[in-house]
Amino acid sequence: xxxxxxxxxxxxxxxxxxxxxxxxxxxxxxxxxxxxxxxxxxxxxxxxxxxxxxxxxxxxxxxxxxxxxxxxxxxxxxxxxxxxxxxxxxxxxxxxxxxxxxxxxxxxxxxxxxxxxxxxxxxxxxxxxxxxxxxxxxxxxxxxxxxxxxxxxxxxxxxxxxxxxxxxxxxxxxxxxxxxxxxxxxxxxxxxxxxxxxxxxxxxxxxxxxxxxxx
Length: 215
Known about the structure:
- By secondary structure, the chain is of the alpha/beta class.
- The protein has 2 domains: 25-147, Rossmann fold; 153-198, no CATH class.
- 22% of the residues lie in helices and 26% in strands.
- It contains 4 helices and 10 strands; from the N terminus they run βαβαβαβαββββββ.
- The chain has a 5-stranded parallel sheet, with helices on both faces.
- Helix 4 (123-135) links the parallel strand 4 (115-121) and strand 5.
- The protein is elongated and about 60 Å long.
């Protein structure tokens, strides 16, 4: 039985980050393996308009929790952190995603016209950042995103409205209601999650093979 639904247009499509030199202010968010993407954009800004770096904020998270302390220590030492020498308006490294997103929200509350947003990292992180950006009415021309690292999904159960985090399989048991959910490609930007629907609704107890597909 083939229960997977493909080709759904709501599934996000990402492209490599590129600097938008038409922007007056630049806000960059990164998690996990995002450093390469963020440094690429910073290099492009520096080459095109060095003065733009003084109007650029970078909020980032280290690749692993075990590296958080060392990364934070490096960030506080201008001699060991190459980004410090760029003269950025703000460079802030965080120990977890909630703290980063909280600061992101604070910055958006004060952001000015002409701000460009760049987001790089796992898809689940991108989704959460995009959800906040939409709350502040940023439009698609002002946002760029590049998926890097894990493809694990946030899955929203359409039956009990619970959200499961870090889902790597095509079928997952909902932590809220216990139903077995098919992870669809249908994506909600408002919820920052993929939709999960009961996989055995028509044939109770018949669960297709569970495979790890979002790695």
